[in-house]
Amino acid sequence: MNPFNKSNLSAFLTLFASVASTSAFANTCTDAVFKEIAGYYMIEDSGLQLDSAISPNFYNQTYTYSNGKVSRSQFFEKESGSTSTMNYYWNKDESALTKQGIEYFMKDSTSGDTTFIFENYYVLGVMGHQKTIKVTSQSASILTKDLDFGQENFEEIINKGDTVIINRYSGKDNSTALSNTEFYVSDTENTKCLELNKNGTIANTITYEPMNDGYSLSFYSDGFTTILYFSKHEETTAIRKTIKPVKIAPKARYFDLLGRHISH
Fold first, then answer.
1. What is the secondary structure of 130-198 as a DSSP string?
2. The pTM is what?
3. Nearest CA to 53 among 258, 212, 250?
4. Cα(21)–Cα(186) distance, rounded to whole angstroms?
5. Cα dihedral 190/13/242/207 (nearest 10)
6. Are 51 and 229 in contact (CB under 8 A)?
7. CA 19 to CA 220: how far, in whole Å?
């Protein structure tokens, strides 16, 4: 049984009524955050794609697309001056892998309003993890199998309009132990929202800002800033933020599509 039930959700929303809007309609900021967190490679109806993720003092990450899907990401670390490149192969035979650097072997399919994605992650030809991803317009689930440590972790992401809930489980589904919960709730303005942990502590302040051809999302946490820039192009995807800078050993500068550091 999912330990985060309707009564728990109701109690949470009552507790944070001072910061969460009571509107029945999606808050602009929380809706954008849901798409950014749960998009997972999907082509959005708006045609918006993530152009770049920037932490001004620490890194830049840029994205290249082909046929509507991400094909390459480059991560530039300012401290070391090094660049890591990640390549993505969609719906191809695994013989397409070069076994050099960081590579993702991707397969996707759609049934009704649900997209299924299967991801294998390789470093120098050695598989490090496998992911099974399921996405709809208002929810997503991600099962990750870490082959190095023999662990499975499950995430579920739910968009309830002015609240986005992320539950993480230390196992293969939501019947296993709940290890962490995060909430994104609307602030008093459509252009702002807050990330809260399960105790109600503010972990991030997020600002949504429209631009001529898209929008940006700025995340502020513990004195660090990360800005994501989305714009309208022919090809699109969605990638999660990295908030804090990571000290990276020269042999472990590996990042996944969501901008998260992976050490092997």
1. EEEEEE-SSEEEEEEEETTTTEEEEEEEEE-SSEEEEEEESSSSTTS-EEEEEEEEE-SSTTEEEEEET
2. 0.74
3. 258
4. 6
5. 20
6. yes
7. 17
Q: DSSP secondary-structure letter at 99?
A: S
Residue 19 per-residue DSSP state? T
pLDDT confidence tier of residue 122, bands split at 50, 70 and 90: very high
pLDDT in tens, 30-75: 988 888 887 655 555 556 778 889 999 899 999 888 887 888 999 9
- Picking from 55, 98, 34, the residue whose alpha carbon sits closest to that of residue 255 is 55
Find out whether 248 and 261 touch, Cβ atoms under 8 Å. Answer: yes
Rounded to whole angstroms, the Cα distance separating 9 from 106 reads 35
Pair of tokens at residue 214: 């898209």
- Answer whether 70's CB lies under 8 Å from 53's CB: no
Q: What is the pLDDT of residue 131?
A: 94
**The tokens of 164 are what?**
């986005």
CA–CA dist 243, 141 (Å, integer): 22
Number of Cα atoms under 13 Å in the Cβ half of residue 87: 12
Residue 122: both structure tokens together? 């390789």
Cα–Cα distance for residue pair 17/162, rounded to 1 Å:
11
What's phi and psi for 95, nearest 5 deg?
A: -65, -15
- Determine the distance from the C-alpha atom of residue 99 to the mean position of all C-alpha atoms in its chain, rounded to a whole number: 26
